[in-house]
Design goal:
The chain is an alpha+beta fold. The chain is built from 13 helices and 20 strands.
């Protein structure tokens, strides 16, 4: 397949990462993936898979060969709750496919643009203390190793906790088998509250609701609390107008205009945040699960997200107002906080502990580094683990102590990709060369 020259240039969704590949590979079969990797292995070249570009780190930057899985997006098999798909399938297509079979993912993040491979490989997660990352739903994979061998791995295999969440360092995923659940409806309850009231209620709400998260609006004492729980009937749907008004017009069209204004006239940002927080109205509705979990995101931004032990949340969140007030620029986006339970996936942010995730954002084109660096300085001594797909400044040296299975993962990397066919500067930084 001929690739136009301009397709070699790539920019991620957030606009903060770009690269110019020497070659762009678009395999249409697993055999073609294998052939590409064998050729690269034999000639000393590198191959980097790129999904939808929703990572803010340089994890997908390819300066040699960029490989796209855009033609590997099909359903392979449905066997009860086990669903096998090609790894390039976008989550949006996965959700529709599952719905047609009366199934659903048990949990999702808040966007559905990522590929299945990209979502599980970077630690994409939703919220809920009985849930973890999407990688924890993986039951089996097929992966092309650095030598071009097609390897199958299933839960229980020695290397499986590594390939479940491999940050692109172990090989190219071609098929993923997910453990799904019967399709379900969520009752969503969303309401504005004082931040102090949200924090005071968390110890009650987190165990008594399946999914809990909140947003805090900088320069204010206001937050928005979201709680989602399964119900048997979809009997309280939003009107099409209310859905369009809240999730499309206000959250995207109007919000983008507000962000552009704030970027141009920073002095108005605190007033905008106050107005936005006060303008929030409560809503309660029912809808198919993935349509509650995932919402449109057309306003582009950059993001850092840190996982910290749940008990450390007050300290981390309490440091943010002072950080924000001391910045030489204004913060235009709310701070998002989510919660998950422990898992046993080696490079999962939530490995072995209950977690709070705190995400900080800035509108695309606005300065962010002093903000993100200051927040990382708070989270790091708390044992914080940065999201693999979101901006951070950590290295292998200081990540090793916070991941008990870090060296086990590196050993699997040495086994599956000893020549580092799949590496790039980001992986060299966070895993070592």
């Amino acid at each position: 397949m001929t690739i136009p020259r301009n397709a070699r240039r790539w920019i991620n969704w957030g606009g903060n990462q770009q690269s110019l590949a020497v070659d762009v590979l678009t395999p249409g079969t697993v055999d073609e993936v294998v052939a590409h990797v064998k050729e690269a292995s034999g000639t000393g070249r590198r191959v980097k898979v790129v999904g939808s570009g929703h990572s803010f780190t340089a994890i997908a930057v390819a300066d040699d060969q960029r490989l796209l899985l855009d033609r590997l997006t099909d359903l392979v098999a449905v066997d009860g709750p086990l669903v096998t798909v090609q790894a390039g399938m976008p989550l949006r297509k996965l959700n529709e496919t599952l719905a047609r079979h009366g199934l659903a993912m048990p949990n999702l993040g808040d966007i559905d643009a990522q590929t299945v491979a990209g979502a599980i490989s970077t630690g994409t997660h939703g919220t809920g203390i009985t849930h973890t990352t999407l990688a924890a739903c993986v039951e089996a994979v097929k992966i092309v190793t650095g030598s071009g061998d097609l390897l199958s791995a299933v839960k229980g295999d020695e290397i499986f906790p590594a390939v479940q969440l491999g940050i692109g360092a172990l090989g190219i995923l071609t098929e993923v088998t997910l453990r799904c659940v019967p399709a379900f409806t969520l009752l969503a309850d969303e309401r504005p509250m004082a931040l102090t009231d949200v924090l005071a209620g968390l110890d009650e709400w987190i165990p008594s609701n399946e999914h809990v998260e909140f947003y805090w609006y900088p320069y204010t004492d206001r937050a928005q609390l979201k709680r989602n729980n399964k119900v048997t009937e979809n009997d309280r749907p939003l009107s099409s107008f209310r859905g369009w008004l809240d999730d499309d017009f206000l959250s995207n069209t109007v919000w983008e205009g507000v962000c552009r204004l704030g970027r141009r006239v920073p002095a108005v940002v605190p007033s905008i945040q106050s107005i936005a927080a006060r303008a929030l109205t409560a809503r309660t509705y029912t809808e198919r699960s993935d349509r509650v979990f995932c919402t449109p995101r057309r306003v582009h931004f950059t993001e850092m997200e840190y996982e910290i032990p749940r008990e450390a949340l007050p300290e981390a969140l309490g440091a943010l107002p002072k950080i924000i007030d001391g910045l030489p620029f204004k913060v235009q986006f709310p701070v998002e906080v989510r919660f998950t339970g422990p898992d046993d996936v080696w490079l999962s942010h939530g490995y072995g502990r209950e977690s709070a995730y705190v995400a900080v954002h800035q509108f695309t084109g606005a300065p962010y580094e002093p903000y993100f660096q200051a927040f990382e300085a708070v989270c790091r001594p708390l044992g914080g683990r940065p999201h693999w797909g979101k901006l951070h400044y950590r290295t292998a040296e200081d990540l090793r102590p916070v991941y008990p299975k870090f060296d086990d993962f590196v050993a699997v990397r040495d086994r599956l990709d000893p020549a580092r066919v799949f590496t790039n500067e980001y992986l060299d930084r966070v895993l070592g060369v």
